[in-house]
Amino acid sequence: xxxxxxxxxxxxxxxxxxxxxxxxxxxxxxxxxxxxxxxxxxxxxxxxxxxxxxxxxxxxxxxxxxxxxxxxxxxxxxxxxxxxxxxxxxxxxxxxxxxxxxxxxxxxxxxxxxxxxxxxxxxxxxxxxxxxxxxxxxxxxxxxxxxxxxxxxxxxxxxxxxxxxxxxxxxxxxxxxxxxxxxxxxxxxxxxxxxx
Length: 196
Known about the structure:
Blueprint: E1 6-14, H1 21-24, H2 44-49, H3 58-61, E2 65-68, H4 80-88, E3 92-95, H5 100-107, E4 112-115, H6 118-127, E5 131-135, E6 140-142, E7 148-150, H7 155-163, H8 167-172, H9 175-184
Parallel strand pairs: 1-2, 2-3, 3-4
Antiparallel strand pairs: 1-5, 5-6, 6-7
């Protein structure tokens, strides 16, 4: 994954609470075996059923920052939801709260989840499509009115995102220790020779 530092751009407002992973990425699109190409299916049902679905509007279509209501990403643990959001073009999702496994799945692919107080999220929703700046280095969001609002983020998640380290990269960082273990470990195991 690519290292993450700062994103400045328009915000796309999804003023809904309890958006679950089936709403983000409906089940009928989970049959693919690759991790790419899911963007076209994000919020599929809403995009098909609502005449003027907010995220389809031209002023929001290319926004790199999605702002939503509380409990975003609840429901099943499907990784396809973060994959689709990232493939659609989002680099940051801001909400008052996230489902834990959704937040974890996002951090593993470089999609930053930013938790802000509800009042700040409301200010962003009302200001859309104004641009904001999200700094991972500083752990801050520069609001449309110029205020700088801090957000909490686990130190290890921050380090991984700043360096672009996914699980494979973290394993490769320890490649020398893995090789040493393999060279020195005991190799005896059960005998596969026939007794008869």
